Amino acid sequence: MEGNVHIDPRLNQLETWLASGWQIEEPILQRNAYHGPHGRTCSYEVVVHHAGERRVCGLRDAPDVQDFLLRRQLAVLDVS
């Protein structure tokens, strides 16, 4: 898990899967979760695969999620 502990337990779970050999399928899908007078909030859908199995992990936008995406240099596709 690279020693990271995140506020969002789904990001912790994703890090655990990756440490167990799961691979991310790019691009990561970015969607509007909310759009209001103060801007938008988005969410990300991360698809991972391992041994013929696929899983999807939904993540709310947050600083640690942004750090995760940048650190791994993942391609993100906005499908809003």
Explain what you see:
With 80 residues, the protein is an alpha+beta fold. It has one domain. Helices cover 25% and strands 46% of the residues. It has helices at 9-19, 63-71, and strands at residues 23-36, 39-50, 53-60, 76-78.
Measured distance between first and last alpha carbons: 30 Å
Which structural class fits the helix and strand makeup?
Answer: alpha+beta
List the total number of helices: 2
- DSSP strand content: over 45%
Task: Output the radius of gyration.
Answer: 13 Å
Mean pLDDT: 90
**Number of beta-strand segments:** 4
Order of helices and strands: HEEEHE
The domain count comes to: 1
Strands of the biggest beta sheet: in what spatial order? 3-2-1-4
- Sequence stretches where pLDDT stays below 50 over 5 or more residues: none
Main sheet attributes: strand count, strand direction, barrel closure: 4 strands, mixed
Percentage of residues assigned to helices: 25-40%
What global shape is seen?
Answer: globular
What would you call the quaternary organization?
A: single chain
Features:
single chain, 80 residues, alpha+beta, four-stranded mixed β-sheet, 25% helix
